[in-house]
Amino acid sequence: KAGVTQTPRYLIKTRGQQVTLSCSPISGHRSVSWYQQTPGQGLQFLFEYFSETQRNKGNFPGRFSGRQFSNSRSEMNVSTLELGDSALYLCASSSFQGTQETQYFGPGTRLLVL
Amino acid sequence: AQSVSQHNHHVILSEAASLELGCNYSYGGTVNLFWYVQYPGQHLQLLLKYFSGDPLVKGIKGFEAEFIKSKFSFNLRKPSVQWSDTAEYFCAVLGGSYIPTFGRGTSLIVHP
């Protein structure tokens, strides 16, 4: 079974630009979560999607948005990039069976904003 | 607001030593608790989780964690570490907001 894939793996943008990151979950997983990882702030939750609906959103400005498609693939978009948006963006897909959850992370997209 | 504190930022052990990584959280309600591990060059992965029931949770690779509600703690333990346990370990809490909060992580180095 293929793992969680994220594209692109590396990205360099300049301030003010926008960026779209993609995440393909494990087949059959309907939940996709996004996280930001930086040396300064650590791991922070961005949002979670389940069956094309955003279920939860972390404490990030409206410049950060996302969506999920009918095939469970998800994209996140960051508009008007700032230097502080430089980070590793992680995606995770989850499946639930009763109270049992399995969660798998992708390799991440490393974004550098210049 | 919920928060997580991992007191040990860096831990260095010799192989076969016992490990205990501290994790304390602040949240007054029902919580779900997690430990994640990130091995060098590998993806972040879920090590173990507590939702309810037995407060002693066993995870992969011989790790376990104990939820002590009175102490707001969820410490990670392993009786005998191996060189391959060298990694970054993150504790996380999920409270009523359903937004997970992560600790800053503990870097574990195990000397062979």
Could you walk me through the main structural features you see in this protein, from its secondary elements to its overall organization?
The complex is a heterodimer of chains A (114) and B (112). In chain A, 0% of the residues lie in helices and 59% in strands. Chain A has strands at 5-7, 10-13, 19-24, 31-38, 42-50, 53-57, 64-68, 74-78, 87-97, 100-105, 109-113. Chain A is globular, with a radius of gyration of 14 Å. Chain A starts with a strand and ends with a strand. The termini of chain B are far apart. Helices cover 0% and strands 52% of the residues of chain B. The mean pLDDT of chain B is 94. Chain B has 112 residues and is mainly beta. Classes of the chains: A mainly beta (114), B mainly beta (112). The interface between A and B is medium-sized, with 22 and 18 residues.
Sequence-ordered SSE layout with sheet pairings:
The complex is a heterodimer of chains A (114) and B (112).
Chain A: E1 5-7, E2 10-13, E3 19-24, E4 31-38, E5 42-50, E6 53-57, E7 64-68, E8 74-78, E9 87-97, E10 100-105, E11 109-113
Parallel strand pairs in A: 2-11
Antiparallel strand pairs in A: 1-3, 3-8, 4-5, 4-9, 5-6, 7-8, 9-10, 9-11
Chain B: E1 3-5, E2 10-14, E3 19-21, E4 24-26, E5 32-38, E6 44-50, E7 56-58, E8 64-68, E9 73-78, E10 87-94, E11 101-102, E12 106-111
Parallel strand pairs in B: 2-12
Antiparallel strand pairs in B: 1-4, 3-9, 5-6, 5-10, 7-8, 8-9, 10-11, 10-12
Brief summary of the model shown:
The complex is a heterodimer of chains A (114) and B (112). Chain A is mainly β.
